[in-house]
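User: Here's a chain of 222 residues. Predict its fold as tokens.
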Amino acid sequence: MTISGKTVELFPAAVPGAPLVVVNGEGDEGRRLYDRAREMTEAPFSLALIGGIDWDAELTPWPAPAAFRGGGDFAGRADAYLDSLTGEIVPRVVKALGAEPVYAALAGYSLAGLFSLYALYRTDAFARAASVSGSLWYPGFMDYVRAHAWMRRPDCLYLSVGDREGNTRNPVMKPVEANTRAAAALFEQAGVPTAFGLNPGGHFNDPEGRTARGIAWLLEQG
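Assistant: Prediction complete.
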């Protein structure tokens, strides 16, 4: 279905009121991601895969210059997209499910992983979040995390990164592993159950499997 100009693939749980996992991703990966997550957990859940996103604009929290050769600048329109996601898209998804989920979680890969954490500081709509190979190298993000409070204290958080993602000559992206570890440590110090995963490989190794692993961990926390 299409909601607010975004494509939404919805995979309902057999159990009414099961947790809802919202994933910002690509429009053709919903079924594969849902099936892989179900292989990793017996916990019932519904999955809503949101596609048709302008990643460099709608998943970035504030404007920033291009981080790699040939790439465009980041527009920093995450707040506007988050308003649409929580005000229009998720309510329509919940209506389609026919029952209010016990909680909603937000998950994503790369810039969508950055967005998953940023959203916690801007809305109370999500109780849990997974930032999978999240772009925590984003300029100013760690400063923002240290200076701001969550809108809602998360039940738990999952962060991961590839063990080769920091092996880059790009000075902007090089801190990604160190920043991910630092963010996980900050959340743990705040008393939030937090998992940190170090996956083998670089940024483009098995994104669906990594994301499914993060979703499964969130669901297994009770």
